[in-house]
Design a protein that fits this description.
2 copies of one chain form a homodimer. Chain A is built from 12 helices and 10 strands. By secondary structure, chain A is of the alpha+beta class. In chain A, strand 5 and strand 6 form a beta hairpin. Chain A binds a DNA duplex (30 and 30 nucleotides) through helix 3.
DNA sequence: TTTAGCACTCCAGCCGGTAGAGTGCCAAGT
DNA sequence: ACTTGGCACTCTACCGGCTGGAGTGCTAAA
């Protein structure tokens, strides 16, 4: 249906959307005729607009206003018409400066999110890799607290720290806890968390008698710590308040919907999850994805990776009417630099081969 | 100057504010005369309103509207006229259910904040105790990462976990790290962080020769981890989007100011800090505190404590026109229950029989 | 196929009029 | 000395009508 448009029609659609992105007003035939540089009369432009409207790429807010791009119009625009602005080395330097390689991964992600929101003047998103499955266990520690509570500290290979408090039925001495941790680390360090969990179940039964007690302790503790889901904090959002400066979203009800989406996180996570599979920058426009709260909004995302394997995605969310040609390269480069930083300070550009 | 008001005047001021809080409309003399139950004619009420206006306790949006309380009016109201609604045991149960004693402290605080925002339908605030000074060190751990980075895990007596990645000049083996941690824990566990930092400086010079190497390592690592400020995350805010449903704040610019305040956190922290000193519930009304962003807002706070010593404050922020008689007891009880939960599962507090 | 012309539509802003709510003041009543 | 009814006045919010501007759709001519 929307096979290939006439080049002239394409140019008109492109300039219409550029113009609309620039000042947010419906674009009339006269303005468009002048702007496009095609030496056409307004009347001709009107005819073409009529065609575009039939195709569902533009629409008119009311009988006598100019045209405005529809979601599908934006889709064609970003897919085939848009030419991204090359990023200046200056900007790259700024981003790189903010995302230093030698930081706590948690801070690194937070910084990336904040950076995105600042540079794009929109809300920044970072989906944090859920520690499940992929990450390998590096070390486990047990720390006794008061009142039969034990703090379990779990460090994964990439330097992320998770901790959880569990309850036990009796008091344990510090040396017992240390032995348990030692046993556990000897047995399981280096394995993936999923693997650890699987083996735990097996070993719980086939325990050799002398280690029984300690091993039992360790495994039961670790199992408690591992099984409870840690979906918490999977999504970071920064610079939400930037969205309040945007005329398109001035309506409090729209804002409310958006902010609720930030808080519940579910829909956004689902969206970001989709973008993990495909490599490179991905763009979700308006109601395309089917989320009510994201009507009139677009999400630009890119996956990032550790040591070559994709572990999460980042991006920005803003009004459908955003400066894609600037936002897209920024999201792209941020994802690349973040991947580099997460993969260790040495391997800044060259893809490294890992062992572990 | 505003020494003691006539009782009749007090009643009128009280009902005026109650009425205004209830429906947000300026209150006229006729309505007030009927509502107050004093058997006065509107004309008399008008005279008294005139007096109150002179005292700066009420004001009129324009010549022919009813009266509206000023910040000073609210101040008198909450200080001397307000009678708080007693909390039902049902509510207490709900709050207690949400704030279970045996949880990770971090979750506990987050839950409290979320709870406050839900119950009051406003934004919930929790100031997290900065780990500085007060908390005692329980355990320190070093975990080697790739690329000469070391993860320092620091557990304080109350079960909070802090971690930071530091860079070192050479690679360390796992056993070296373990020795260093052991040495460190033997020497310093149980001391307050401030104390630890002080002793570190001394010990760094007077090192005995055989332990020199290891101790040197441990102290240098710990010092790096301890000195960098961890002001991060001192304030948690929940349910911000509740504020978008409030008619008083429907204006996007006001919202923008507020949300910026949430993000920068500085002013709010300063405010909450003030409330740490005084015991019990404290109320900041509108521009009283001098923060531009908080105009038309009130903050209701209460300090919470661990084992009897105050470590932080929590509360809610909302429009000046809020249901104080409900919010105040909720903030109060939440602070108490949180304190109980933080102080360990055993001492669930004997019912406070104090009335203020 | 493009263009000029024309009638038409719709929005945004402005004006004037009106109803409603509430005040301030004054003079009379208790 | 208070309290009250009465009265004139003021301000807002709302409605309807009017107007100018912008832009379209259609038609007929180039």
């Amino acid at each position: 249906m929307s096979s290939t448009l006439n080049t002239r029609t394409e140019i008109l659609l492109k300039t219409l959307i550029e113009r609309y992105i620039a000042d947010g007003q419906p674009v009339g035939s006269r303005t468009l005729a002048r702007q496009a540089g095609l030496d056409l009369s307004p009347a001709t432009v009107r005819n073409i607009m009529s065609d575009l409207e039939e195709l569902g790429l533009v629409t008119s807010p009311h009988t006598s206003a100019g045209r405005v791009p529809t979601d599908r119009g934006y889709r064609v625009f970003v897919d085939t018409l848009l030419q991204v602005r090359p990023i200046t080395t200056n900007e790259v330097r700024k981003i790189r400066h903010e995302i230093e390689a030698d930081q706590d991964p948690q801070h690194l992600l937070a910084n990336a999110s904040h950076l995105l929101s600042e540079v794009c003047r929109l809300a920044g998103l970072v989906m944090v890799p859920r520690r499940e499955e992929q990450a390998a266990l590096r070390q486990l520690d047990f720390v006794g607290l008061t009142g039969r509570r034990i703090l379990v500290i779990l460090v994964t290979q990439d330097g992320q720290v998770h901790n959880r408090i569990i309850n036990v039925e009796r008091d344990y001495s510090a040396s017992e806890l240390e032995q348990a941790a030692n046993y556990f680390n000897d047995a399981y360090a280096g394995l993936g968390l999923a693997e650890v969990r699987r083996q735990l179940l097996r070993d719980l039964e086939a325990a050799s008698s002398d280690l029984q007690r300690i091993m039992d302790l360790a495994t039961r503790m670790a199992r408690q710590a591992l099984t409870e889901e840690d979906k918490h904090d999977e999504l970071m959002v920064s610079g939400e308040s930037n969205l309040m400066d945007i005329p398109d979203l001035m309506d409090v009800r729209k804002l409310r919907l958006l902010f609720d989406a930030f808080n519940t996180k579910r829909d956004l996570l689902h969206l970001l999850d989709q973008s993990m599979r495909a490599g490179g920058v991905k763009i979700f426009i308006g109601a395309e994805a089917g989320y009510e709260a994201l009507r009139e909004c677009s999400v630009v995302t890119a996956p990032y990776s550790i040591e070559g394997t994709v572990v999460g995605t980042l991006g920005v969310i803003g009004p459908t009417r955003m400066a894609y040609e600037q936002v897209i390269p920024i999201v792209d480069i941020t994802a690349r630099l973040l991947s580099a930083a997460l993969s260790g300070p040495d391997r800044l550009e060259s893809p490294g081969r890992d062992s572990h």
